[in-house]
Specification:
Length: 138
């Protein structure tokens, strides 16, 4: 059995940041899940990161599949490796970074699903200005 990937459809679901060489690919949108969740794959280049921010209306969970992802949640910090996960409750300041020399891949789940997650604007902001997007509410 052969699996065919529609690369045009895949590209429409992928947002790429050319400054950091990071990307997010939507695996399941809020609309597709009936509002239950938004699921995406985050592909983070070495040194890629987001600055501290928080979300008022949803939790954000990270499940690392490749590499290592440093996640700061409130005052705590942990480094996740393959098979490890962490969840950030709504309203909690958090950030993440790939502090390794290799790419990191993680599935990120937002619950409940978000029809307009902050990723597109955050990636666009950082592509326009690498220093943009300090502590922000999303």
């Amino acid at each position: 059995m052969t699996t065919t990937i529609d690369t045009a459809a895949h590209q429409r679901r992928r947002i790429f940041n050319p400054i950091q060489n990071d990307a997010v690919t939507f695996l399941e949108t809020s609309e597709e899940s009936g509002g239950i969740r938004t699921l995406a794959e985050l592909d983070v280049a070495p040194g890629g990161k987001v600055t501290p921010h928080f979300h008022l209306g949803y939790t954000e969970s990270f499940h690392v599949t490749e590499g290592r992802l440093r996640v700061t949640i409130g005052d705590g910090e942990l480094t996740l490796g393959p098979g490890e996960a962490a969840t950030v409750p709504a309203g909690i300041l958090h950030a993440w970074a790939n502090a390794s020399d290799e790419r990191t891949v993680a599935q990120v789940e937002l619950r409940p699903g978000q029809s307009r997650p902050a990723w597109p604007s955050a990636l666009a902001d950082s592509a326009a200005s690498p220093s943009a997007g300090t502590s922000a509410r999303r």
